[in-house]
Amino acid sequence: MDINYELYKVFYHVANTLSFSEASRQLFISQSAVSQSVKLLEKKLNQPLFIRSTKRVQLTPEGEILLKHIEPAMNLIRRGENQLLEANTLGGGQLRIGASDTICRYYLVSYLKEFHRRYPKIHIKVTNQTSIACAKLLESGQVDFCVTNYPNSGLSNTQNVRIIREFHDVFVANEEYRHLKGRKIHLKELKDCPILMLDRKSTTSEFLHSLFQRHQLDLVPEIELSSNDLLIDLARIGLGIAFVPDYCVPGNIPNLFLLDLSEPVPARQLVVASNENLPLSQAAKQFMDML
After folding, report:
1. What is the pLDDT along the chain (291 residues), one digit of tens a residue?
2. How close are the terminal C-alpha atoms of the chain, in Å?
3. Which pairs count as long-range contacts for 75-79, CB under 8 Å and 24+ apart, including other chains?
4. Which whole-number Å values give the CA distances from 68 to 63, 251, 265, 274, in the listed order?
C-alpha cells in the first residue's frame, strides 16, 4: 500500500497528543492540514482512526493497533537522525534511559553526575517507570536502554541483558515486631503478618509472590505501594513488615531491624538491557560501559 510517510507522521503526533491543535503546533502546519491528512490516511486505510467530539479526541481500536506499529518506527527514524547529527561523536545528541525511582536514586545518580561531567553537551533524559514498564519502553524504542531489576517478565528475547551487580531483598520491621528479632523466621510465620510491598506491576512483587508460591503459601499483602522509600517509612512507624531491596535500606535507621529468614531468598540482579534490533548511539554505549 503506497501511503506517504508524512501522513503517518501526522497520525503519530495526533495520536500522541490526542489533540489536532497541539499536533499542528508540533508539526508547524495548520490545524486544517492536520485534519485533512488524517482524513486522507483514514480513506486510504479504509478505517476510522480517531473518534472526534467537541471536547476530546480519542483513538479507535483500529487507531490503537496502528499506533503500536507506527510508534517504534518513528522512534527508530528519530534515533537514526540523531546518530547522523552526532556523527559518532560525544559532542552532542541525546541519551534516553529508563529506570525505576529506586534504581535512579540509589544507583544511577553518581553515574549520571560523572557522565554529565565528562560529556556536558549530551542531553540526558531519564524516564521513571517500574522495571516492567521500562522494558516496554525499550521494546518500543522510547529509550536507548533501561536499568532494571532481574528477572523481569517484561524483557523479551530480542533484548540484550548485561548483569551489573547482585543484590538481596530483605524484610524490615520495627520494634513492634521484636518477637521476631534474633531468631530464624519461617515464611509461614510471615504469612499472618501485615506485609508491606510494591504493587503487582513491579518485578519485586512478582519475585515475592513467586517465592511464597514455591513454598505452597499464599501471600496477601496488607499494603501495596509504588515507592520503596515509603514502604520503609511505614515499617518505621509499625504499620507492618516491609519487603525491599537491600540497597535502598539505610544503615542508620533507629528501631528498624532485618528479619533473618530460614528459607533462603535467592539473589536478584541489577542489569542494563538494550534492544539488539536497534542501533545504539555512542553516548548510550559509553554510559553502559561506565555501568
Report:
1. 677 889 999 999 999 999 999 999 999 999 999 999 999 999 999 999 999 887 789 999 999 999 999 999 998 888 777 766 664 567 777 899 999 999 999 999 999 999 999 999 888 999 999 999 999 999 988 999 999 999 999 998 778 999 999 999 999 999 999 999 989 999 999 988 999 999 988 999 999 999 999 999 999 999 999 999 999 999 999 999 999 999 998 877 778 999 999 998 999 999 999 998 888 888 899 999 999
2. 44
3. 75/140, 75/141, 75/142, 76/141, 76/278, 79/141, 79/144, 79/278, 79/279, 79/281
4. 9, 45, 38, 19
CB-count burial class (<10 Å; 0-12, 13-18, 19+) for 69: exposed
CA dist 25 and 34 (Å) reads 10
Reported as type and span, the H/E element at residue 49 is none
Do the bridges between strand 184-185 and strand 260-261 make them parallel or antiparallel, or are there none, so unpaired? parallel
Among 101, 102, 82, 100, which Cα is nearest to 92's?
Answer: 82
Closest listed residue to residue 147, CA positions, set 247, 271, 6, 287 = 271
Taken as a whole, the chain contains a residue count of 291
CA distance 217 to 210: 10
Compute φ and ψ for 72, nearest 5 degrees: -60, -35
Q: Are 273 and 137 in contact (CB under 8 A)?
A: no
Reported pTM? 0.70
Strand 145-150 and strand 94-99: pairing?
parallel
